[in-house]
Fold this sequence. Notes:
By secondary structure, the protein is of the alpha/beta class. Helices cover about 45% and strands about 5% of the residues. It folds into 2 domains: about 5-235, Rossmann fold; about 345-525, DNA Cyclobutane Dipyrimidine Photolyase, subunit A, domain 3 (Orthogonal Bundle).
Amino acid sequence: MRAGVRVASRLWKRLDELSKFGFGDMGHFGFVREAPFRRTSPCDTLHQHDAEPAPVRRFAFSGYCVNHPQNRPGLVWFRRDLRLDDNPAWAAATAAHDEVVAIFVIEPGLMTAAGSIRRDQLLAHLHSLHDELRSLGGGIVVRTGPASTAVPRALIDCNASALYFNVDTTPFSAARDRAVERSATVPVHSFHGHTVHEPGAVLTKSGTLSQVFAPFYSKWSARPLSPWPAGGNGRPVTMSGEPIPLPSGPVRQEPGEQAAWRRLNTWLEDVDRYPQTRDLPAIEGTSALSADLKFGTLAARTVVDIVGTTTPGRAAFTRQIAWRDWWTHTLALRPDLPNAALRQQYDRIAWLDDPEGFDHWCTGTTGYPIVDAGMRQLVETGWMHNRVRMICASFLVKDLLIDWRRGERFFRHHLVDADVAQNAGNWQWVAGTGPDAAPYFRVFNPTVQSRKFDPKGDYIRRWLPQLQQVPSSIIHEPAAAGPLDLAAAGVTLGDTYPWPVVDHGHARLRAISAYKQALSDNAAC
Ligand SMILES: Cc1cc2nc3c(=O)[nH]c(=O)nc-3n(C[C@H](O)[C@H](O)[C@H](O)COP(=O)(O)OP(=O)(O)OC[C@H]3O[C@@H](n4cnc5c(N)ncnc54)[C@H](O)[C@@H]3O)c2cc1C
């Protein structure tokens, strides 16, 4: 069966199942339409407006009610949920209002913090969302921020009677949303549309977030997926806004929700091979869906619903999405995740101030080919394979003994999928300063990792063309090869390829000693 058909039929089957629940369990989602439960296929036109609006029941959700359809428009503030399907805020607004205005606020601070690859991808997604909304009679209204003034202004401009958005957990978003809520003169309805289970919903028996992933995962996977509100018949309308800036060049991935669905469909053909392919950076063995999840062109909950856990490959993949939830839940609880070691004692590590070492790492000139290839891939494409992210991060923290926060900021700037929770969480995991991290004395050996996960050196050759002719036997550690072998491959160390900036053996001992010292300083306090 074609993957697309499989997705659609699976979704319809799931919707059939949901409709049998009689909606009694859906109360906490704010509102539901009375039966019949009806949804369009995600790959088809997303919303249809020809049917009579169904009656809407009302009840409380997080302290608010969504009222009956109204004549005044609802304003939906899009942020990192650039989709119409499975978008709780959009669904709630289209069910409660006859007309709905969609707005996106360009925050200048966020735009300059993002590298050009992420910025361009965002702009391309905005154009796609605009086209999608235009085909339904509306469009995305773009205004320049700060949101705390742009959103209240937009509420007045379109005479909206309510504001809708999906919450985000970053400290920046939380502060921004509070500011907008304070200035809004109409009811504000916020939803959780970014994770599979909302922060705070997966807790230990004692009501806390597990500090170990495995128990979190077992509770996470036992919890049924909560249905989200069904969309209504509200008509997208538009008002004056600014032109959407054009991307500065070609974008990394085809933009828009439909393209994201195609990527998911394609991935379904390969997901069963995931346990064998996921750690091999030389091949396309992972889903490449992280940027869709970051921008919200796909909802994580939808992805999990469709992929499921029925085969080992599907289960392994879905488990990774649970990691994503775990870090998001952690950030919601610990907004200092990007700034402070969650295991406090590790904030006593005497990191080195080594601008030269940091520069070698950023520019992919460390003399460790797997690290250099990874850093080139990051800067050139905005993406890096997960295994290589771990190797590069470990190299900065353990081999160069440079503060993980510097690497976290560099990744965050360049990654197209940069997500504060995932990035900071994983950096803390690699540095051994966060929850569920490996003990500090287990230090990745970049050369061993390279031999294991890129055995033929194909990944290295792709990103380091100067090593193109180097045979697999010596490509992982050119400095250990004989000068004649290197000369035969056209490589001169210190000229066409750098000598290693550190000796891994010494660096490993230095890192262990610095970590140990931090622990003993802590014990002495
Ligand atoms: C130092 C470091 C920094 C990272 N920074 C980010 C980041 O800013 N944004 C980001 O989305 N991921 C980040 N990751 C996690 C992971 O590397 C990427 O999610 C993954 O490489 C994206 O490729 P994919 O979609 O093909 O992944 P797949 O292997 O296909 O996984 C599917 C999805 O599961 C989630 N996932 C996979 N691995 C992880 C993980 N370790 N932690 C959390 N979620 C995961 C992602 O949403 C991913 O799209 C980071 C990992 C490391 C080691």
